[in-house]
Amino acid sequence: MVYIFKQIYCQILVDCKNCQQVIQTFLTYVFLKKCLMKLNIKKYGTDGPAVLVLHGLLGSSQNWHSAATKLSKKFQILVPDQRNHGDSPHGTHTIQRLSEDALNLLDQQNIDKTFLIGHSMGGLAAMSFSFKNPQRLKGLIVVDIAPVSKMDRMDWIFEALAAVDLSAVKQRQHAEEQLAINISSPLVRQFLLQNLKRQEDGTYAWRCNLPELHIFIQKDTGFELKESDQYEGPTLFIGGGRSEHRIAEKEELIARHFPDYQLTMIPNAGHWVHFEAMEEFITTVTDFISGKLRE
């Protein structure tokens, strides 16, 4: 790919020496957009409208497998591993970069318009995307996060992951036993252990880029909410009734930036709504998308 670009570039320079800067800028743009950050992606279903799903911090496409499988009965579901997660490349981590990655992915997949679902960190990226690229959306679904500039730092989780002695891990159970010292919830441990991978030499490593993600969560996320930011398209906010995020308390803020919004709280769910209350989540999402398609 790089070789082809160089050949085209050299030929154009011969024909148009006065256009060097324009050509170089254009080729750099194309190269970066199509090649450098190509996310690992899983696809489910072949019928219905496209639905792009952006997972949360320390998640991956794997976390959405069950929900995506159920949703794929009516929709075409695309779930990428976001940068620094799963099997996608590593790089600088900000909400703006995640939003740009989503736009690039739609271009790479030749998708003109999509429904967009974002959970937690992915929800911030989805909201950022909606402000900048409303013409690419049929509708927006934000899961258990409000339009706020900072997330829970979750230092305790990063410290627990860093404390795992991977050299002593011979099987996944060993890693879980070490995590249990600092994390009492089996649900949280199983979620985090999806980041553990066995390498070809038999040793274990984390799939995600823990150092970069810890830096990201310790500072401003890069989600910049201006008073003038609005997405006027149909929007559904889904919150967990047991979640510490309490998005229902931010409804006034939500209404200012998403005037065509609905808010649905699922009482028996915590932060991982799509996992803890999957059937209610699937029904809520399906009804919203199907209703908008009928309008």
Write up this protein.
The chain has about 300 residues and is α/β, with parallel strands linked by helices. The protein folds into three domains: about 1-35; about 40-145 and about 225-295, Alpha/Beta hydrolase fold, catalytic domain (Rossmann fold), CATH 3.40.50; about 155-215, no CATH class. About 40% of the residues lie in helices and about 15% in strands. The chain is built from twelve helices and nine strands. It has a seven-stranded mixed beta sheet, sandwiched between helices. The chain has a two-stranded antiparallel sheet with strand order 6-7. A hairpin with a 5-residue loop joins strand 6 and strand 7 (about 205). Helix 4 packs across helix 5 and helix 6 (about 155-160) runs antiparallel to helix 9 (about 210-220). It starts with a helix and ends with a helix.
- The radius of gyration computed from the alpha-carbon positions, rounded to a whole number of angstroms, is 21 Å
Q: β content, as a range?
A: 15-25%
Report the span from N to C terminus: 44 Å
Structural class: alpha/beta
Number of domains: 3
Shape: globular
Mean pLDDT: 88
According to CATH, the fold-level topology of the largest domain is: Rossmann fold
Q: Looking at this structure, what is the CATH superfamily of the largest domain?
A: Alpha/Beta hydrolase fold, catalytic domain
Helix fraction?
40-55%
Q: What is the level-2 CATH architecture name of the largest domain?
A: 3-Layer(aba) Sandwich
* Number of distinct helices: 12
Low-pLDDT residue spans: 1-6
Strand order across the largest sheet? 1-3-2-4-5-8-9
Number of strands: 9
- Characterize the main sheet: 7 strands, mixed
Element string (H = helix, E = strand) = HHEEHEHEHEHHHEEHEHEHH
The CATH class label of the largest domain is Alpha Beta
